[in-house]
Amino acid sequence: MTNDALQLPGQTLTLSGGSTIPLLGFGTWQIKGDDAVRATAAALEAGYRHLDTATVYGNEAEVGRALAESGVPRDQVFVTTKCPPDNAGKELDTLKKSLELLQLDHVDLWLIHWPGSGSVNTDLWKAFIEARDAGLTKEIGVSNFDAALLDEVTQATGEAPAINQIRWSPLLFDAQTVGDHRDRGVALEGYSALRGGTLDHPVIVEIAERLDRTPAQVIIRWHLQHETVVIPKSVNADRIRSNADVGGFELSAEDMTTLDGLGS
Question: Is residue 168 situated within a structural domain?
Answer without folding.
Answer: yes
